Amino acid sequence: MIDIEVLIIGGGPAAITIAKNISNRKKVALIRPEDYSMIYCAMPYVIENIIPFDKSLKKDAIVTNTGAVLIRDKAIEVDFESKSVVTAKGDCYTYEKLVIATGAVPLLPPIEGSSLKGVFTFKTEDDLKSLLAYRDAGIKKAVVVGAGAIGIELAQALNNAKIETYLIDMKSHVLPQMMDIEMVKDTQDTLKNSGIHLILGDRVRALKGERAVSGVVLENGKEISFNADGSDSEEGVVVFAVGMKPEIDLFKDTDLSVEKDGIIVNEKMETNIKDVYAVGDCVQFKSGISGNVIGGKLATNAVPMGKIAAKNILGDTREYRGFFNGAATKIEHYFIGGTGFTEKKSRENFSVVTGYAEFTTAFPVMPFAKKVRMKLIADKDSLRVLGGQVVGGEPVTDKVDLITMAVQYGIKVSDLVHFSYSAQPYQSFFPANNLMVACAEEILQKVKNVS
Ligand SMILES: Cc1cc2nc3c(=O)[nH]c(=O)nc-3n(C[C@H](O)[C@H](O)[C@H](O)COP(=O)(O)OP(=O)(O)OC[C@H]3O[C@@H](n4cnc5c(N)ncnc54)[C@H](O)[C@@H]3O)c2cc1C
User: Fold this and answer.
1) pLDDT tens-digit profile of 289-329?
2) What is the tally of structural domains in the chain?
3) Centre of ligand 1 from the C-alpha of residue 233, in Å
4) What's this model's pTM, rounded to 2 decimal places?
5) CATH number of the CATH domain containing 52
């Protein structure tokens, strides 16, 4: 029996955040099965050879330097009565407070052929190593299923590694959770022009092959074959990037309250069991906009949840305000980001009005100025901002984050028209205009015209 004040199950960003924020005040231990924590976001760029493999692995010092003890093991049993955790190596730890940060695992749809050799999901060090091995063996074709940010980044990486790449999504446009269709039309053309075969509005029905995957059959009957003779010669891979499910099997036969999207927590990140917290991708929480349950499996959600749990464990009172889901990706020379609700999602709960603006990333007279376009989505009745999207020739996360602030703090478009901004030839459009203000003006105008 080893006594720990705060025991954390997990080794991802949520767990590491707890360790960083608490270990100087409490005796903390973190249980993690992997040899290394991964920088998941960096994985596509390893395949593309932009960064070396070992740079995608986090150093253990990130945990041990906080003063926390790192236990390389897997929790296999949790007893909330006796406040103890048993591990695969047979050790037993007792805790005063337990933090569950077990994350999420990628979904592998149960379709015919999904257990064939050469079929992957994309999250672990092993996934990355396997794909690198296939890349280095000179495979000819790759099929990526799911055109969310992970699928898009992976497809581009494989394509840039000179593998003929197919990107398939059942939705009618890429990034369906983050962007509305009109904002990504141009970027889709760019993806196609880069050589990627983009197939939208179709599903993978089955994977072909005896031992290794040799092709993909789509719902519409079309087939993608990896080898001209249809043989099993490992000339292609299929990677599913179709979403994540919470890693909560460990708690199947316990009293912990869980639902489809994860462990149920309150604003303090407390579960239904005393002294047990849960944070990160393993948690189900609500939208900061509608208050309804919504997915939020992002590192930028996991880290704040970890910080809030740490503060509460230390006796502070801090409350999590919900998922807003600001996120970004890159398609060739386009930087793309979205936050809050898309127009489509907004229409489920609100009467919606939208505004658009397009300017340049620097004064248009500057030779390097690039186009940047914004869409703002608002509730017609309250004028509250519900979400926004940005596509431009330079990084957009600063603009996305500004929109998130408007969404998060309930700012109305009637306030945004008064937004006081800065301008300089290298860094912004002329002082005459600002993207967010222009979008807000258009929305206000539309609302006035109908009222
Ligand atoms: C390819 C890729 C790219 C991404 N890009 C971005 C991005 O650009 N921006 C962004 O915000 N997010 C991104 N994400 C999502 C982000 O990585 C996750 O939201 C984040 O890692 C969640 O952190 P977490 O700590 O909750 O869970 P995880 O990082 O999943 O960590 C969970 C940990 O718990 C451990 N664990 C599970 N069960 C047990 C057990 N029984 N015992 C002990 N340990 C256990 C796991 O092994 C793992 O170490 C990306 C994800 C992927 C896969």
Assistant:
1) 999 999 999 999 999 999 999 999 999 999 999 999 999 99
2) 3
3) 33
4) 0.96
5) 3.50.50.60
Q: Which atom of ligand 1 is nearest to the CA of 297?
A: 19
Q: Which of 298, 308, 396 has the most ligand 1 atoms within 8 A of CB, as the residue to mutate?
A: 298
Segments forming the whole domain that contains residue 413? 334-450
Q: For the range 55-58, what are the long-range contacts, defined as Cβ-Cβ under 8 Å and sequence gap of 24 or more?
A: 56/128, 57/125, 58/16
The Cα–Cα gap between 362 and 345 comes to: 32
Residues 6+ apart with CB under 8 A from 210: 232
So what's the pLDDT on residue 230? 57
Mean pLDDT of all residues in 320-349: 97
pLDDT (tens digit per residue) in 271-280: 999 999 999 9
Distance of CA 329 from the midpoint of ligand 1 (Å): 18
Same-domain check for residues 255 and 218: no
Atom 32 in ligand 1: residue holding the nearest Cα? 103
Atom of ligand 1 nearest to the CA of 75: 42
What six digits make up the tokens of 144?
A: 């990526």
Question: Is 358 in contact with 391 (CB distance < 8 Å)?
Answer: no
User: In this predicted model, what pLDDT tens digit does every residue of 14-23 receive, in sequence order?
Assistant: 999 999 999 8
Sheet holding 197-200, edge to edge: 119-121, 236-240, 141-145, 164-169, 197-200
Model confidence over 245-261: pLDDT tens digits?
A: 999 999 999 999 999 99
CA of 227 to the centre of ligand 1 (A): 35
